[in-house]
Specification:
two-stranded antiparallel sheet; 2 helices; 6 strands
Length: about 100
């Protein structure tokens, strides 16, 4: 994790806005769906057919590690990949991106 990225990037002071459900996803809600496995923070919710953590967000199914990246670091640049250093597809630990 870059030294200049230690402070989480918050969307309006909350985790994110789920337009499909018209609700806000709080830090507490997100944290309640994660369990610690070694150094990884593993998503306990749904996974897609490729084994990546996924959830319905903004009206479509999205990979949770990309949502978590935006929470901690801000928008993902166009064409950029968010890779897991740990190779755990369900990991959402920001230090592993």
């Amino acid at each position: 994790m870059n030294e200049d990225r230690k402070t989480p990037y918050h969307h309006s002071g909350l985790f994110a806005y789920n337009e499909a459900r018209r609700t806000r996803l709080s830090d507490e809600w997100f944290a309640s769906r994660i369990r610690k496995e070694g150094e990884c923070q593993v998503w306990c919710g749904s996974a897609d057919t490729g084994g990546y953590a996924s959830m319905n967000f903004k009206g479509k199914t999205q990979r949770v590690h990309r949502i978590a990246y935006e929470f901690y670091f801000g928008p993902i640049p166009i064409g950029a990949w968010v890779l897991h250093h740990c190779d755990n597809r369900r990991c959402v630990n920001p230090e592993h991106f």
